[in-house]
Amino acid sequence: MSPFVLLIARDLRLALRQGGDAAMVLAFFALTVILFPFGIGPEPELLQRLAAGIVWVTALLAALLSLERMFGADYEDGSLEVLALMPLPLEAQILAKCVAHWLTSGLPLTLIAPLLALFLHLEASGYPALLLGMALGTPVLSLLGAIGAALALGARRGGVLLSLLVLPLYIPVLIFGVAAVEAQIAGLGARPHLLLLATLLVLALGLVPFAAAAALRQALE
Amino acid sequence: MPQPSESPSPASPRLGFAARNLACRRGERLVFEGLSFILPPGAALILRGPNGSGKSSLLRVLAGLTPPAAGTLTWDGEEIHEDREKHRRRLQFVGHADALKLVLSAAENLGFWAGMRARAPVEPAQIGATLAQFGLGKASALPCRYLSAGQRRRLALARLTLSSAELWLLDEPFSGLDADGAAQLLTAIAAHRAGGGRIVISTHAPLDLAQATSLSLADFRPAPDRTSEAVA
After folding, report:
1. Is A19 near chain B, with CB under 8 Å?
2. I need a labelling partner for B231 at 20 to 30 A (CA). Which of A172, B40, B74, B152 fits?
C-alpha cells in the first residue's frame, strides 16, 4: 500500500473505531433539516420554495462540525509532527486527509440529502441537481475546511475560530449549489452551475494542499 | 578554508551531519546561539543542560521542523533546506509525545508508521518481531489505550528499528522506561551505530554510550543582555 493510501486507510479505520464523529454529523444534518417544518409551519408551498437552501445551508453547518478533528487529534497526540517528518510531502498528506474526511462526512451527507429533501417537498425535477451538486460541492467543503482546520490548530476556542474562518469561504459553494437546483426546477438546466462547482473543486484541489501545508508547518514550528 | 580535497578528512565539515553557528529563537527569546558540531557516521551526540536550555528546540531544528534563527545545517556538505524530502527520508524523530492512536492496536500503530516510511510492504512477521524485541509481544493485539505509559513509550521507540534511517533524533527517550526498556533501547542504539547510523539524544539520566560526544547547551546560552533581543 502506498503511503498516500495507507494514510487514508488509517483515518478511515480511526473514524470507524471511534464511530461517533461521522454519525454525529449525519444526525445533526437530519435533525436540523427536520426542525424547519416545525419552525416555519407545514405549508408545502413555502417549504418547497426553501427546500434547496435549507438542505445546503444545513449541510455546510454539518460539514463544519467534524473539521476540528481533521488535524486536531493528530496535533494533540504528537502524530502530526511525526507525519510532517515522513517522506510523503505534507501537501500530499493533506489531500489524503481530505479524501478520508470527505468519505466520512461529505459522502454520507450527499447520500442522505435527497431523503431529507423529501421532508421539505422538494420538486421532483430538482433531485438530480441536488445530488450532483452535493457530490461536487462537499469535497470542496472538506478541502476549504482543511485550511481553516490547519490555521485554527493550537488556538484557544479553535472551534469558534474555525467557523469564522471557513463559513465565508463556503459562500460560493452554497450559491452555485442552490442555484443548480433552482435552475433545474425552473427548467433552465443545472449544467452551468454544476460546471462552476466542478471548477471550484479543481481550483481547491490545486491550491488547498499548499495553503494548508504552510499553515501546518507554522503550527508545528 | 583550504581547497576541499578529493578525500576530505573526517573532521571536514563537508563530510557528515554538521551544524555551524546554529541559533534558535522561541518566541522572542534567543534560546542558544553559536552552536556547532560535526557528526560522522556512527557518531552519537548527547545533549545535556537544564530544563529550558533548548535541548528539544535543537532537536526540532535538526529535524527541520523549526528553521534556525541563524547558522547552517549541512549533510555531507549539502544544506538540508535544499532538499527537505531527502532529509526527512534519512531521519527518524521520537519526541515527547508518543504519537500513538489509542483505539488502534500496538501492531496497527507500528505497522502504520513503518508503512509510511517503507518502500516495500511491511510484513506482519517483521512487526511482530519488532514488538517482541521491545517486550511488547503479548500486547500486540491490544488497543493502545490499555497499555501503560512505559509500554507506550516502548512502542513509540519500536518505530525506530522497523525502518532504516541514518539519523535518529531522540528527545528524552528514557523517560518512563523501566530498566528492561532502557536496556532494549541501548541495544537498538548500539546496533544502529554499528551499522553507521548517527544519533542525537537528549537526556537527564546518566547515559553511558561508547565514544559519544556530550554537548552542554548551557554553554551556548546567549549573554543576558541578548536573550530578550527583539526580532531582528
Report:
1. no
2. B74
Structural domain total, chain B: 1
Question: What CATH number is associated with residue B52?
Answer: 3.40.50.300
pLDDT tens, residue by residue, B1-12: 444 444 444 445
B14 confidence band (pLDDT: 50, 70, 90): low
* ipTM for this model: 0.88
Report yes or no on B28 lying in a domain: no
Q: What is the helix (H) or strand (E) element at residue B91, kind and residue range?
A: strand B91-94
Q: Look at chain A and count its residues.
A: 221
pLDDT tens-digit map of A112-146: 999 999 989 999 999 999 999 999 999 999 999 99
- Residue B16 belongs to a domain: no
Task: Nearest chain B residue to A216 by CA: give it.
Answer: B65
Name chain B contacts of A221, Cβ cutoff 8 Å.
65-67
The answer to whether residues A144 and A67 touch, using CB atoms and an 8 Å cutoff, is no
Hey, what amino acid is at A176?
F
Residue B49 forms part of a structural domain = yes
